[in-house]
Design goal:
It is built from nine helices and 40 strands. With about 450 residues, the chain is of the alpha/beta class. The protein has two domains: about 230 residues, Spore Coat Polysaccharide Biosynthesis Protein SpsA, Chain A; about 200 residues, UDP N-Acetylglucosamine Acyltransferase, domain 1, CATH 2.160.10.10. β2 and β3 form a beta hairpin. α7 packs across α8. Bound molecules: uridine-diphosphate-N-acetylglucosamine and calcium ion (CA). Uridine-diphosphate-N-acetylglucosamine (UD1) binds next to α4 and β10.
């Protein structure tokens, strides 16, 4: 794997380090949370940026943070450098370089932390273009107006980047933009960053000015153009966040569709990036599947299902239901309107119907509860049937207690089982039973409190 990545990146053996800029306050988010921790499709912008860097085979990543953001990024196990005051992207890179041990033959990739849609292959391309001697940067053609920095070319190369606020009318009309992703030979970067000044409209040290400094020394940068500008759209406010979420969701759905999953309406199917879904599964609208859920083959999921941190076997149907932190074995049907949660395990061929809640319970093969029931802290044996309206009374006001139901048991409608209770194999309860004592295998009880039937 590592070897393959090195080959793609151009130069085997070269040390590539990345500086991920994330210290900006993100004031346009109007949020108490740092911008790069805002989420799309269940992961933070920062998570996507780090994932792309790692997929591109970057050896070492350092994230430039601010004092509030720093503890949260470190908690992810990522190296950080604190930029105490945000004096601009050029200043941020200078702070990072001071923390990185110099390497004369190193390469440095610099990228903004607020671009969650950037693909690893784009990072690989910009690094390959830079090679040993050149600076390269990612550009994109975009419809105007746009707030991006403008690319001023000299022939095939880039002479400088002009920020919108510093641009004249002619420069504002340029539709080739700076994406904010750059690859530098490390010695060039250290050299140009030391030359940055803040004599511009925002009184900031712009990393973008590094391009003009390099050009003045005869080292014009090489542009690497992405085909679709959406990939490099930065997220600066919540409207842009929503747009990026839709694009990311579309991308994730696309990946599963191309791998054999039918998604009836990707726009209303909410998927996260780390799912496994088997072929010929059909996902109906209004469904969300999250965390590291695994869904088998030939399943029917939705409409309106919420599946989170779940494992679902083959040939399962989950309709208008919620399955959280639980397992549904092959051949089972869940819903409509069921709630399976709290480490419940349905072994397989189970049926869970309308208005049934199952918490921290285990259903052996073929066990069923089709209507209006609560099964909490229970074990239900093979082929047992739980009648409509059955409740395991698992909570006595202080403690939770378990219910054990054997195989081939028939629990009558509206039975209350006052836990802890054990019900033997082949037992039966009559409708409306309140079970306050254990039942022997083959026992038949009814009434309140339930007594053996004659
Ligand atoms: C920047 C580029 C612009 C480019 C655009 C692409 C500069 C001067 N301009 O503009 O040419 O078209 O990105 O999205 O670089 N940051 C820090 N410390 C700071 C300032 C910013 O870490 O002191 C971080 C931010 O958290 C953000 C990134 O750098 O992740 C970019 O900063 P931002 O202020 O969003 O730059 P733009 O104005 O979007
Ligand atoms: Ca930005």
């Amino acid at each position: 794997m590592e070897e393959r990545r090195e080959r793609e990146r151009g130069d085997p053996g070269v040390i590539v380090r990345a500086i991920l800029l994330a210290a900006g306050k993100g004031t346009r988010m109007k949020s108490a949370r740092p911008k790069v921790l805002h989420e799309l499709c269940g992961r933070s912008m920062l998570w996507y940026a780090l994932a792309a860097l790692r997929e591109a085979g970057i050896d070492e990543i350092v994230v430039v943070t601010n004092p509030e953001l720093d503890p949260e990024v470190r908690a992810l196990g990522v190296r950080t450098v604190v930029q105490a005051e945000q004096l601009g992207t050029g200043h941020a890179v200078r702070v990072a370089l001071e923390a990185l041990e110099p390497r004369a033959d190193g390469r440095i990739l610099v990228t903004n932390g607020d671009m969650p849609l950037v693909r690893a292959e784009t990072l690989v391309r910009v690094l390959a273009a830079a090679g040993e001697h050149d600076i390269s940067l990612v550009t994109a053609r975009m419809p105007l107006p746009s707030n991006f920095g403008r690319i001023v070319r000299e022939g095939e190369r880039v002479a400088r980047i002009v920020e919108l606020r510093d641009a004249d009318d002619r420069e504002r009309a340029i539709d080739e933009m700076n994406a904010g992703i750059y690859a530098f030979p490390e010695t060039h970067l250290r050299d140009v960053v030391s030359k940055l000044r803040n004599d511009n409209a925002q009184r900031e040290y712009y990393l973008t000015d590094a391009i003009a400094h390099a050009a003045a020394a005869g080292r014009h940068a090489l542009p690497v153009t992405v085909e679709t500008f959406e990939e490099v759209l930065g997220v600066n406010d919540r409207s842009e966040l929503a747009r990026a979420r839709a694009a990311m969701n579309r991308r994730i759905c696309e990946r599963h569709m191309l791998a054999g999953v039918t998604i009836i309406d990707p726009a209303t199917t909410y998927l996260e990036p780390e799912l496994t879904i088997g072929i010929d599964t059909v996902i109906y609208p209004g469904t969300s599947i999250s965390l590291q859920s695994i869904v088998g083959s030939r399943c029917t999921i939705g409409p309106h299902a919420r599946i989170s941190d779940a494992r679902i076997g083959d040939d399962v149907s989950v309709r208008e239901s919620v399955v959280v932190e639980s397992e549904i074995g092959a051949g089972s049907t869940v819903g409509p309107f069921a709630h399976v949660r709290g480490h419940a395990v349905l072994v397989g061929d189970n049926r869970v119907g309308n208005f049934v809640e199952i918490k921290n319970s285990r259903y052996e093969r073929g066990a069923k509860s089709a209507h209006l029931s609560y099964l909490g802290d229970a074990e239900i044996g093979e082929e047992s049937n739980i009648g409509a309206g059955t409740i395991t009374c698992n909570y006595d006001g202080k403690k939770k207690h378990r219910t054990k139901i054997g195989r081939d048991v028939s629990i009558g409608s509206n039975t209350s089982i006052v836990a802890p209770r054990t019900i033997g194999d082949g037992a039966l309860t009559g409708a409306g039973s309140v079970v306050t004592k254990d039942i022997e295998p083959g026992g038949r009880v009814a009434g309140n409190p339930a007594r053996p039937l004659p």
